[in-house]
Amino acid sequence: MTLELTLILAAAIFAVGLYGAISQQVVVMVMMGLELMINALILAAAGFWWFLAPNPTGQVLLMVILAVMTLEMAMGFAVATLLHRVRNSDMTDMATDLSG
Amino acid sequence: MSMAVGFGLLGLLAVLSGAAVFWVNSMARATYALALSFVAVGLQVLFLQQNYVGVVTILMMVMEMAIMAVYMVMFMGMNPALMPMSMVHSNKAALGIAVATFLALAAGVLLIDWPTRRGTPAPDVTAALGDALMGSKMLVMVVTSPVMVATIVAGISLAQHRTRYDRFGDDLTQRPSHDTQPGGGGR
């Protein structure tokens, strides 16, 4: 168990999540990509806490990351519900009103 | 040594199950793959002595994935949640960006001369976290709480079937109101 191994694993999870967030067309799948990225943040923050500065501040940062994850999920589901209701679709390509 | 092997295997499981989210044929399987990835990371966090955060991560994400599975089956047409599907765009570009991001992050991780550890963990890290949240770090929770309340309000506003904004317009000045029946039916 080293900081480098922890961070490389976190980087791999983050990259997988980034791929999903960019490539997926279904809103829920995009959310899954974002959650994988936040998952990587949890691992990286826990690694920084344990290997560099194991004081309570790092744990509080982890709690904030968990809170951000719940907010992302709640808002994502609400937006997906609205999109399904208004457009009868759950695809990001059907919600490009603000693009360009 | 066994700790290091277990930690590495859990990390590998987290990465592979994360990749499986975008590789398996159905959304239901993708949901459980994501849950597996979160459980693996939660166990890794436990290996790093973050007992409370690790357990909360596992419990929270298992529940969230259960909700997500129900959600997908509920909303998706033709029930593709249980059927093979591939719905991607810009696949090669996304793959290239993801690989480049990983290489950049990994290079940074390996090239940086990381400092040595400062301090030692508290004997009971969970109690230390509680003390911090109720003491010197209370402002963090004080700020997070209204943000969560705002999220609840925003979520309900977005997900509601018909609101006053549907009846009176975005600036609430539209008269007469746009009702499904004269007199205000279907509010």
Task: Describe the protein's architecture and organization.
The complex is a heterodimer of chains A (100) and B (187). Chain A has three helices and no strands. Chain A is mainly α and 100 residues long. Chain A is elongated. In chain A, 51% of the residues are buried. Chain B has seven helices and no strands. Chain B folds into two domains: 85 residues; 64 residues, no CATH class. In chain B, helix 1 packs antiparallel against helix 2. The mean pLDDT of chain B is 85. The interface between A and B is large, with 68 and 83 residues.
Number of helices of chain B: 7
Low-confidence spans of chain A: pLDDT under 50, at least 5 residues? none
The chain-level mean pLDDT of chain A equals 87
Report the biggest beta sheet of chain A as strand number plus sense, adding barrel if it closes. Answer: none
Averaged pLDDT of chain B: 85
Sheet-strand content of chain B, in percent, reads under 5%
Distance between the termini of chain B: 64 Å
User: Total number of helical segments of chain A?
Assistant: 3
Taken in chain order, the helices and strands of chain B follow as HHHHHHH
Query: Count the strands of chain A?
Result: 0
Number of domains of chain A: 1
Interface with most residues: A-B, 68 and 83 residues
CATH architecture of chain A: Orthogonal Bundle
As a whole number of angstroms, the C-alpha radius of gyration of chain B is 23 Å
Query: Helical residue percent of chain A?
Result: over 70%
CATH fold assignment of chain A: Helix Hairpins
Radius of gyration of chain A from the CA trace? 16 Å
Helix content of chain B: 55-70%
Top-tier CATH class of chain A: Mainly Alpha
Q: Biggest sheet of chain B, in brief? A: none
Oligomer: heterodimer
